[in-house]
Amino acid sequence: STICVHGLGYIGLPTAAMLANHGHQVTGYDSDETVVQSLANGDIHIDEPGLRAFVTQALESGHLTVSTEVEAAKYQIVAVPTPFDDETKEATLDYVKEAGEAIAPHLREGDTVVLESTVPPGTTVEVLQPTLEKSGLTAGTDFALVHCPETVLPGDIITELRQNDRVLGGVNGVSTQAAVRLYESFVEGDIYTAENATTAEFVKLIQNTFRDVNIALANEIALVGEDYGVDSREAIEMANTHPRVNIHQPGPGVGGHCLPIDPWFLGYDSEQLDLISTARNINDSMPGHVIEMLREELGSLEGKRIALLGVAYKGNVGDTRQSPTLDLAAELQEAVADEQKAAADGGRSQSAGGIDIRLHDPYVEDQTLDLIGLEESVSDADAVVIATDHDEYEELPIDRFEEQMAGSLLVDTKAVLDVDVWTKEGFTVERI
Ligand code: SAJ
Predict the structure, then answer these.
(1) Within this chain, do residues 194 and 291 fall inside the same structural domain, yes or no?
(2) Does 148 participate in catalysis according to the annotation?
(3) Ligand 1 centroid, distance to 344 Cα (angstroms)
(4) Is residue 33 domain-shared with residue 182, that is, in the same domain?
(5) Which NCBIfam families does the record cross-reference, listed alphabetically (predicted)?
(6) Domains in the chain: how many in total?
(7) Which pLDDT does position 3 carry in this prediction?
(8) Inside any domain, residue 373
(9) Is the pLDDT of residue 351 over 70?
(10) Residue 14 maps to a domain
(11) Which of 199, 232, 265 is the last residue of a domain?
């Protein structure tokens, strides 16, 4: 079939390549000329294992072309960003609307439009449908309209795109079946059809909410455990031997572009978010807890040098979106500014220092972040915080740390270090 994929980002690009590599004729559309230009030159702008070869294969076969022009196609797939406004706690649906408006003039009878972007319940019908119907065609009768949420895990996108089960829901049964036929062409998992598009939207959101709330539970358990002097990770491992218990892992917060955001989408037209919003707030409070842990050992943070190892939002990826490490860095700066203000208000003299935060990450390539080498980052550090569970951090060079660091405090928020080994060498290892 001919397919036009809207948005060549984390989801749209792998999806377009997947469809092309399964024999479909695909146009990848993006409104950003630089994205399209670099892809046309064979440059893959998204950092994801295996994606370069996968997209190159699709481009070289001629089944995938990229363009800044929307084309008429049997299937229109929308995979555009739905950014979240942190102030209003609402989704920005402008890109969904724009996609609909871009598709409308090309829409023909018998076409199918699929929305893959994660959206608040009701968006397919209330936001996308009216913009598409400006074409004069009616959803459900003249063209099919369906929501089919993506569920892939960054770091394993290509495999999960193929293997995960999919849930899809259309504005009517004919719509749903039209989309089933498309996804059947590459999905090896099961395809489930929801009652309608709003249900499919809801399903996606509660999947990520489930994970977020469970991580909040793990984080709260860790905080309670600290009050009792209990190692929560050991306790969680023991608890999880029960056949119906599966507690998640505590950490310095929840990052990425999904879990910190999607639960709020459920509040779009509902006042019910109570446990869900509390869970969000617990997860958001974890960088603050790391600061408390540092203060407990170091006292004042003013004039201190702290190395933060791992800037990506999770292990073994280079993605820094909503990374807890960046929140931690910002909150450390604020904490020291508050210390200085309190000192000034109390008439005490201030040291000129501030706080020296050093960032290291073997995966992140962001030039704006001022990342430095591992040894340089820990050199003269009063404390090192391991904030992301990259595999590399399990094998940190103890002798170099001994030589380089000014202090001996390691805050291992993800429990990657062998505590006994490091303690034996004289380090203080604190875990969440
Ligand atoms: N985290 C914990 N403790 C845990 C598990 C994770 O603190 O026990 C943290 C991670 O460190 C990270 C954050 O949670 O900061 C999110 O990581 P993740 O691996 O749980 O999920 P994402 O955001 O990479 O991808 C999620 C996935 N959703 C679910 O597993 C339900 C993925 O399948 C979705 O496709 C993706 O969101 C999305 O795009 O919605």
Answers:
(1) no
(2) no
(3) 42
(4) yes
(5) NDP-sugDHase
(6) 2
(7) 98
(8) yes
(9) no
(10) yes
(11) 199
Strand partners of residue 408: none
- 162 C-alpha to center of ligand 1: Å? 19
Residue whose CA is closest, atom 37 of ligand 1?
258
Q: Is residue 26 within 8 Å of residue 5, measured between CB atoms?
A: yes
What confidence tens digit (pLDDT) does each residue in 385-424 have? 999 999 999 999 999 999 999 999 999 999 999 999 999 9
Within a domain: 226:
no
- 213: in domain: no
Query: Which residue, of 176, 199, 222, is where some domain finishes?
Result: 199
Q: Per-residue pLDDT tens for 147-190?
A: 999 999 999 999 999 999 999 999 999 999 999 999 999 999 99
Q: What is the CATH number of the domain that holds 184?
A: 3.40.50.720
Residues written for the chain: 432
- Structural domain span for residue 133: 2-199
314 is catalytic: no
Q: Which atom of ligand 1 is nearest to the CA of 314?
A: 11
Distances (CA, A) of 26 to 23, 46, 136, 158, 208: 9, 19, 25, 17, 30
Q: Looking at the structure, do residues 302 and 187 belong to the same domain, yes or no?
A: no
Given this model, what pLDDT does residue 352 score?
61
How far is residue 282's CA from residue 288's CA, in Å, rounded to a whole number?
Answer: 10
Average pLDDT on 217-241 reads 97
Residues with CB under 6 A from ligand 1: 118, 150-154, 207-208, 211, 215, 248-249, 251, 254-256, 258-259, 313-314
| Residue 254 alpha carbon, nearest atom of ligand 1 | 15
367 Cβ partners below 8 Å, 6+ apart?
none
Beta-carbon contacts of 207 under 8 Å, excluding residues fewer than 6 positions away, are 151
Could you say which of 204, 304, 314, 414 is catalytic? 204
Q: How does DSSP assign 377-417, residue by residue?
A: HHTT-SEEEE-S--GGGGG--HHHHHHH-SS-EEEETT--S
Residue 214 Cα: closest atom of ligand 1: 8
- Complex ipTM more than 0.95, yes or no: yes
- Could you tell me the distance, in angstroms and rounded to a whole number, from the CA of residue 219 to the centre of ligand 1? 15
> Which of 7, 16, 55 lies closest to 186, judged by CA?
16
β-strand pairing of 75-78 with 2-6? parallel
Q: Kindly name the residue from 4, 148, 258, 304 that is annotated as catalytic.
A: 258
Which residues does 20 contact at the CB level (< 8 Å), separation at least 6?
Answer: 26, 58, 61, 63, 64
State whether residue 236 is helix, strand or coil. helix
Give the atom of ligand 1 at the shortest distance from the alpha carbon of 389: 11
Residue with tokens 């935060």: 357
Residue 31 CB coordination number (10 Å): 17
